[in-house]
Amino acid sequence: MDPVRNPFAPGAGQRPPELAGRDREVDAFEVVLERVARGRPERSLVLAGLRGVGKTVLLAELRSMAVRRGWGAGKVEARPEAGLRRPLSAALHRAIRDLAVRHRAPDRVEEVLAVLKAFALKANPDGAKLRDRWQPGIDVPAAQGRADSGDIEIDLVELFTEVAELAADVGTGIALLIDEMQDVQPADVSALCAACHELSQSGAPLVVVGAGLPHLPALLSASKSYSERLFRYVRIDRLDRSDADRAVVAPIEREDAAITSDALDALFTISGGYPYFVQAYGKATWDAAVRAEISDEDVRLAAPEAESELAVGFFGSRYERATPAEREYLRAMAELVEGRDEPAPTASIAEYLERRPSSLSPARDSLIKKGLVYSGERGLIAFTVPHFGRYLLTQE
Question: Does residue 21 come out as left (phi exceeding 0), alpha (psi in the -120 to 50 range) or beta?
Fold first, then answer.
């Protein structure tokens, strides 16, 4: 069929043509927005799941919902080697600009921007030369004595308070969305939890929505014990059969085409219901189809093309980041679980490789930091990427 009309959209964070299977999360966030608008307390939100299940897409959808309700909204993508001050400052700057167009007191907006600038400038290391100092691009003088202590926990509470009060002035709220939240540095995680705790007690209209890998709830709990009650945790998983079918059928029918039930069976089996794979196999199948009704034969013919693209862009790019020792560890995991999406016992990996468990700790810890594996339970390790074990078993 005409590739120009191909409705499927495999891509990192790219919204699929049909956002299927996420109605529960969208409806729950609508309740959060409405409760905050009425001055009622509400918990911040954490989305946790494997790669390829659509966390980033859902995060973008929640941001759009907040903007449509007149909220200020900013998004951060955390990086393991970077602190939170600079990206958080940029995200909140955007959120404040969203609110400024509705605020009747420009002087008040400038007061909050001055506090934000003071917070942002503390991202510069002490003693840095003027030419090396980062400037946040905020055209007001920095405030003195507010959010500028250098202690991220104190400063973040003060900054969040100022921004939330600005939102309250116009009768809305602030949504701060943090992707790859498991990569936030420990001190910054602690500060985020403390700031959210402080604001939840006062009922301030600021909500943090974080998204990350399955072990994110454990990381937050380890940082602050009360985080178990501070956030509402939502597990984002693969689509069930009906939602996976809807993600395929709806965009195809909008293009005046059709798909057989056998083809839907084949697509669900090969994709496992993971949203990214649904899009990847759906796109390849559309391009391979020669008639307006897609058949299971089209799925079979298209599968190698889809798998070739996944091998390079989805699996291969991650595998290339691993060192030889880390690849050995990954391969052992894959062989122990026979390519299935299941956790492997760390003791069994050591036994399989005929090594002491302690000698494998550096490789395991590095793979966790690189986001290739995670430990959801003591003594077990699993891939963060669906079907990664199956991919590894196809490599020489």
Answer: left
What is the tally of structural domains in the chain? Answer: 3
Does residue 18 fall inside a structural domain? no
| DSSP secondary structure letter of residue 382 | E
Q: Which of 235, 269, 295 is the last residue of a domain?
A: 235
Phi/psi region, residue 127 (left: phi>0; alpha: psi -120 to 50; beta: rest), is left
Single-letter code of the amino acid located at 65: M
SS (H, E, C) 278-343: HHHHHHHHHHHCCCCEECHHHHHHHHHHHHHHHHHHHHHHHHCCCCHHHHHHHHHHHHHCCCCCCC
* 185: number of Cβ within 10 Å: 16
In a domain, 12, yes or no: no
User: Within this chain, do residues 117 and 130 fall inside the same structural domain, yes or no?
Assistant: yes
Whole domain around residue 302: which residue ranges?
240-318
Instruction: Determine the pLDDT at residue 200.
Output: 85
The CATH number assigned to the domain holding 176 equals 3.40.50.300
Residues 296-354 have pLDDT tens digits of 999 999 999 999 999 998 999 899 999 999 999 999 999 999 999 999 999 999 999 99
> What is the pLDDT confidence band of residue 144, given thresholds at 50, 70 and 90?
very high
Q: Does 10 fall in a domain?
A: no
Q: Which of 312, 314, 317, 330 is nearest to 368 (CA)?
A: 330
Which H helix or E strand runs over 211?
strand 206-212
Q: In this structure, is residue 2 part of a structural domain?
A: no
Beta-carbon contacts of residue 327 (< 8 Å; ≥ 6 apart): 319
Summarised one tens digit per residue, pLDDT across range 205-229 is 999 999 999 999 999 998 888 888 8
Spatial separation of the C-alpha atoms in residues 87 and 136, rounded to whole Å: 10
φ, ψ dihedrals at 374, nearest 5° = -150, 160
Mean of the per-residue pLDDT values for the chain? Answer: 92
Tell me the one-letter amino acid at 162.
E
Q: What distance in Å separates the CA atoms of residue 169 and residue 314, rounded to the nearest whole number?
A: 45
Q: Is 129 helix (H, G, I), strand (E, B) or coil?
A: coil
| 230 and 186 inside one domain | yes
